[in-house]
Protein: Methyltransferase domain-containing protein
Amino acid sequence: MSLPHKNEEYGTEAYWDTRYEQEADDTSFDWFKTYADVADYIRRLIPSKDARILMLGCGNSKFSEDVGLSFGYGGPVANTTDQMWEDGYKCIVNVDYSPIVIEKMSNRHKDRRPEMTWEVKDVRTLDGLDSSSFDIAIDKGTMDAMMTSSPDVWDPPEQVIKDCTAEVSQVLRVLKQDGIFIYITFGQPHFRKQYLTVQHHEHFYFTLVTFLVEDCLFRVPYHALASQSDVFRDLALLPVAAHKAEGHSDTDPIVLEGIKKEDFQSLMKVLYPMPVTRLPSDGLPATIEEWTSVLKLSKMWGFNCIHEFAIKQLEPMLAERPLDKVALAQDYGVTRWLLPGLLELATRAEPVGSEDVQRLGLDTALKLADVRESRQTTTVPVNWSRTSRSVLGFDYQAETTVVTASGLGALLHAILPTESATYLN
Ligand SMILES: C[S@@+](CC[C@H](N)C(=O)[O-])C[C@H]1O[C@@H](n2cnc3c(N)ncnc32)[C@H](O)[C@@H]1O
Structure:
């Protein structure tokens, strides 16, 4: 057997071709473990002898074949009556990127074990193998060979990461939904596990979370919630992605007590907008009611950017609606709406009525009435042009109401939270 001059050569096709060329046709070598060493695990993991098995980088190992001596690091292994094929697993596709070893192995087995096939394939592409067509994929030492080009296991070069993740994603492609990937390695688990999960895209790989809001299940990407709100970020400390965690499935949702379905739906429309949509209802919220829902929940859960966005969306909608403005400002802490809103209410023509009491509360409504009563009115000349007057068709006696600064100030102080009092100064 030809050993490489440098360890990295194990990661090259040329090394394996040369090695297999130089070896006698009947040479076998099993890396790390023989089938007999791991047969108990295999039988447990693969209860069905009809399972379709893919052997990745088979080399000239005896793992998948039959009776005879095989050689491990400790020398010849005597008990080989339980090789995989002999054990009853007949449907095995063996692949390796060395055409030399594939030819030799095929010649060795084609007559005695016709169900087993030998194919030249690179495990990084697995070209020609159908998706979802294998029950089991086994790698014994092949990914290890691809990793030998890395002098530093803690910090593998980009190419090693690419090769290993390519193999894993191909394995996932060819395995059936409930297929199993068995990886027998010489390496420590912590250096290997990182390759066994294909990379998740930093932006476009979503963990979904299920919420129950009233009688309705919402299943949404978790990331946007956690990145915008401290409340949901703290929830991320819980193992939301774990299979047993609350929120993982429809049968075990996170219950959002006391939240209205419509309110939550409006917030979701802002978090997950569908810019290219055929249905108007799929776009951003459109009505004051919907934006009020967004204002409310964004305040409650600390979605600060969304709260600010909702304020901006509502501003033009509330331009002519001072009562709504003040009521919403009070309810959801929009202090910058209070002063202009109250000023409008204190100077409008209609007196304080039941709707004001209902929306603002009795206390505020009474204070507002006080301010209105104590207001001073004065006639202010307005520079109407002759044209405007004639267009309007009546003789206008301009009058403007001036609310005393002290009266409005007292009202605002009574309404505003303490921390906003500076707003008045
Ligand atoms: C360390 S040997 C293991 C052989 C065998 N699985 C065993 O357990 O004895 C690595 C084998 O993987 C093959 N190999 C390495 N990289 C490969 C790749 N990208 N695609 C297919 N085979 C590859 C080599 O040709 C070699 O036969």
